[in-house]
Amino acid sequence: MMLTIIGLGCSMIVLAEESNPQVLNLEPSNKNPSKKELQDNLLRLVHVRSLAASCAACHGTNGNSLGNAAKLVGIDKTAFVTKMQAFKSGERAATVMHHHAKGLNPQEITDLAEYFSIQIPHQAVSLSSQKLSEKYAD
């Protein structure tokens, strides 16, 4: 998967990935951010993408779950944060989510909420089954 940074604005980083442009809002502390602050925001972006990738095993790529796990794609940011905090505190029962949530700090939870909220849902494609050719064994 190739990730290209196509713009570093004062308040956002724009990505182009597989013709799916995304904007992750990483607000700098002022309107004229330093190069270091922009670099730090870029590192946050890379970090949140790696965290989101670890969610893919259950929740699908970019939160597009095909199984029983909740879809995270396009989720409301506040709802995501609330649920993750409930998993983290043990208030919300889960099989494994409480373990994952406990490993995240508040900024990571907020960044993941932002990341999943901007993802675009993709419809699953069902492939038709194919008959094995009789000549396959030869």
Structure description:
The structure is a single chain. The chain is α+β, with helices and mostly antiparallel strands and 138 residues long. It has one domain: Orthogonal Bundle (Cytochrome Bc1 Complex, Chain D, domain 2). It has helices spanning 35-59, 77-89, 97-102, 106-117, and strands at residues 4-8, 12-16, 22-25. The chain is extended, with a radius of gyration of 19 Å. It starts with a strand and ends in a 21-residue tail after the last helix. The model is unreliable at 1-21 (pLDDT under 50).
CATH architecture: Orthogonal Bundle
Shape: extended
Spans of at least 5 consecutive residues whose pLDDT stays below 50 are 1-21
Structural class: alpha+beta
Individual helix count: 4
Note the gap between the termini. 37 Å
**Beta-sheet strand percentage?**
5-15%
Order of helices and strands: EEEHHHH
For the record, the CATH class is Mainly Alpha
Q: Using the CA coordinates, give the radius of gyration.
A: 19 Å
Q: What is the topology, as strand order, of the major beta sheet? A: 1-2-3
Count of individual domains: 1
Rounded mean pLDDT is 79
CATH topology-level fold name: Cytochrome Bc1 Complex, Chain D, domain 2
Helix content percent band: 40-55%
Largest sheet: 3 strands, antiparallel
Would you count the extended β strands for me?
3
CATH superfamily, by name, is Cytochrome c-like domain
